[in-house]
């Protein structure tokens, strides 16, 4: 965990990820996005480091998937 760990509200998560609310909750249901934690009886928040890690992992997968076969051979040869 980073030193600047903080709680994020839904609006912050939507803004940070660029993912809409409905999509976000669908990803949570499928286990593809970190679930919020309940910090008070009627208050849920996300941990900033979990959201940032999801962004990093998603961007890595997107780059790998976006690579053509010739790009993969070049990368593997390096």
Task: Explain the overall architecture.
By secondary structure, the protein is an alpha+beta fold. It has helices at residues 10-17, 21-29, 48-66, 69-77; strands at residues 7-8, 37-40, 43-47. The chain has a 3-stranded antiparallel beta sheet. The longest helix has 19 residues, at 48-66.
Instruction: For the record, give the distance between the C-alpha atoms at the N and C termini, rounded to a whole number.
Output: 32 Å
Number of continuous helical runs:
4
Mean pLDDT: 86
Secondary-structure element pattern, one letter each: EHHEEHH
- Beta fraction: 5-15%
**Helicity, as a percent range:** 55-70%
What is the approximate shape?
globular
Extended strand count: 3
Radius of gyration from the CA trace? 16 Å
Structural class: alpha+beta
Oligomeric form: single chain
- Contiguous uncertain segments of 5+ residues: 70-78
Most strands sheet: 3 strands, antiparallel
Describe the strand arrangement of the main beta sheet, using strand numbers. 1-3-2
